[in-house]
Amino acid sequence: MIMGKKHPLPLCEVIVKPSGSGLETRLVLLAALLTVIVCGGIIMVRHATATVQEAPSWQMNAFTDLRSEELATFNALYTAAPEIEAFHEDEDGRWPSVTELRAEFVPPFVQDAAWQRNGGLDWARSLISTSDKHIACYLGSPMEQDKSGSFLLIMLHGHVKKEGNAGASSHVPYEIWLHASPVAEFPDLVTDQALINAGWRVVVARKGEDEMRRTKGEGYIQ
């Protein structure tokens, strides 16, 4: 008996569908989408909009708006002001003259190398004394006019602040103002508005927190 050849079985392709029919994938995507929406909503609710607040045009930032020579003079005045205030207290309300400040080697009044390098400011003093205020103004005009504008140091002494302004309790006992002109004169009236109208700008030394409050808003730093 002769055995016949075996014939191969025909190939058969079977497609097995997933039991979930893609349900699991859709559920994962839906959960991810819901997470994004919820997190975004929470962020929007909790986020405080920060409005950039521009400094008033009559203010100058000592660290960004001054030339190097002007910044040196400002720093010297900032240091000299408490000494002038202390002199005023110790001398029964008398303000020191420019000659006395030079004799005591108080920058920027003393005519040393730094004074010359920063424009050689020529200083003069003007006094305002009434029943409710005692103000001394020190005006510095540069001899080298390409290095600095005119400086005005106003000593307020903690009495009522300049006429027409807020009380002294909300202000430091001195202010430093700068005029772009190197030949500015003493103001006729020592009030904020009068100074601003005459072209003076107050110089402020903002700390890091001050600058953050100015740019981000008062509520930014707790």
* Shape type: elongated
Strand order of the largest sheet: 1-6-5-4-3-2
Series of secondary-structure elements, N-terminal to C-terminal: HEHHHEEEEHEH
N- to C-terminal distance: 105 Å
Task: Briefly note the structural class of the backbone.
Answer: alpha+beta
Instruction: Estimate what percentage of residues fall within beta strands.
Output: 15-25%
**Topology, number of strands:** 6
Largest sheet: 6 strands, mixed
Radius of gyration: 36 Å
Low-confidence stretches: 166-170
- The helix content is 25-40%
Number of helices: 6
Nearest-integer average pLDDT: 80
Keywords: Membrane, Transmembrane, Transmembrane helix
Transmembrane segments: 27-45
Task: Please provide a written account of the structure.
Keywords: Membrane, Transmembrane, Transmembrane helix. It holds the Pfam family DUF6162. The chain has 222 residues and is an alpha+beta fold. It has a domain at 59-213. It is 33% helix and 17% strand. It contains six helices and six strands, in the order αβαααββββαβα. The chain has helices at residues 23-46, 68-90, 98-103, 113-117, 192-197, 208-216, and strands at 59-61, 121-129, 134-142, 150-155, 174-179, 200-204. Strands 1-6-5-4-3-2 form a six-stranded mixed sheet. A hairpin with a 4-residue loop joins β2 and β3 (134-142). The model is unreliable at 166-170 (pLDDT under 50).
